[in-house]
Amino acid sequence: MTDALILKDVRKIYGDREAVKGINFSVKEGEIFGLIGPNGAGKTTTLRMICTLLQVTDGSITVCGHDVMKEADEVRKIISYLPEDSGAYKDLTGRQYIRFMAAFFADGEKFQQMVDKGIEMSNLGDRIDSKVSTYSKGMMRRLLIARAMMPEPRLAIMDEITSGLDVMNAYEIREIVRGIAKEGVTVLISSHNMFEVESLCNRVAMINHGDIVECGTPAELKEKYNANNLEEVFVKAVRK
Ligand SMILES: Nc1ncnc2c1ncn2[C@@H]1O[C@H](COP(=O)(O)OP(=O)(O)OP(=O)(O)O)[C@@H](O)[C@H]1O
Question: Which residues form the ABC transporter domain (predicted)?
Answer without folding.
Answer: 5-234
